[in-house]
Amino acid sequence: MSANTEATGQQQSATNDAVKDSAFLKACRREPVPHTPVWFMRQAGRSLPEYHKVREGIPMLESCMRPELVAEITMQPVRRHHVDAAVYFSDIVVPLKAIGIDLDIKPGVGPVIANPIRTRADLAQLRDLTPEDVWYVTEAMGLLTAELGGTPLIGFAGAPFTLASYLVEGGPSRNHEHTKALMYGDPQLWADLLDRLAEITSTFLKVQIEAGASAVQLFDSWVGALAPADYRRSVLPASQKVLRAVEPYGVPRIHFGVGTGELLGLMGEAGADVVGVDWRVPLDEAARRVGPGKALQGNFDPAILFSTREAVEEKAREVLDAAAGLEGHVFNLGHGVPPNTDPDALTRLVGYVHTQTAR
């Protein structure tokens, strides 16, 4: 072994140790932390002027497939806000696009599917995902892990229910009429659809972990539309399949949904190590619902970022007080960063949480 090779190996080992010992991963593992770690869902992107500058004229899905651009966008909030983790810049529909689904992300609307899945014949659209389909993810994550040093990188994917909702509705939906019609009207087709999406999602997360992600988050953005009994019967098996598929890698698994106060216990049962909580349920009550053995993530209301600095700090203090007795806590918003947020408000919030929780 040459001296250069040995030095590189020692440097990589030191970096890996720093990531492993980071406040974020310690909190996910429910270990003592030097301060409460902070990151924000949708921190990489639309609220930052530098993001709009580098993405000018580039459609959303194309921007997710340019490794150098992805790496730059992912790094921007780390440099600006000094958050405790980077989150990979992508979109939950990227693996669907990668397997050939005819879709586009329309500004101001969201993902729009050209041929919604409504019948068994439509399932043929969903072939298996391969690592080669998302080569740009592996390349971008390689660039990121080299630049991030001891800062962890979070990978993510859409959960089977939320992906199914987009595919069945043909786009975003307020009431999920087509989704629920299929779920109740043809439960076997629904189960087969979610099982196929669980396979695709599992592969997408495995690609990210193998490329360097040190934690992953499963987003079930729309699952709050369901009652607990429907979740247990029609959604839980697929989410469990995804989270079980990546368990052997030993990286923390975070599970998050919006409006899921009544589902928190079930989401904990799905197999995550960390359960994300929106702002509707205080963290101490959320801990009671989720049960022991899980860290919690959340749950600052993102709308409060538009209020005064004093109001932001007061609300952040409430979140930290509610989290005081938790086994592990990662400070986050209860949903994504709104696009017209003042970036300085986020930077100040990170500093406030770090200062208030320094041990």
Describe the structure.
There is one protein chain. The protein is α/β, with parallel strands linked by helices. Helices cover 48% and strands 11% of the residues. The chain is built from 16 helices and 9 strands. The chain has helices at residues 3-20, 23-28, 49-54, 60-63, 67-81, 94-98, 135-148, 160-169, 177-185, 187-211, 228-234, 236-245, 264-269, 283-290, 309-322, 343-357; strands at residues 86-87, 103-106, 110-113, 153-158, 215-220, 253-257, 274-276, 295-300, 329-333. A 7-stranded parallel β-sheet has the order 1-4-5-6-7-8-9. Strand 7, helix 14 and strand 8 form a beta-alpha-beta unit. The longest helix is centred in the middle third of the chain and has 25 residues, at 187-211. The chain is globular, with a radius of gyration of 20 Å. It starts with a helix and ends with a helix. The mean pLDDT is 95.
Question: Notable features of this structure?
Answer:
359 residues; alpha/beta; two-stranded antiparallel ribbon; 9 strands
Strand order of the largest sheet: 1-4-5-6-7-8-9
Extract low-pLDDT stretches.
none
In terms of structural class, how would the helical and strand content be classed? alpha/beta
Taken in chain order, the helices and strands follow as: HHHHHEHEEHEHHHEHHEHEHEHEH
Strand percentage lies at: 5-15%
Q: Biggest sheet, in brief?
A: 7 strands, parallel
Work out the helix count: 16
- Give the oligomeric state of the chains in this entry, treating copies of one chain as homo and distinct chains as hetero: single chain
Please give the number of β-strands. 9
Beginning-to-end CA distance, first to last residue:
42 Å
| Gyration radius over CA | 20 Å
Shape: globular
The share of residues in helices is 40-55%
User: Could you tell me the mean pLDDT?
Assistant: 95
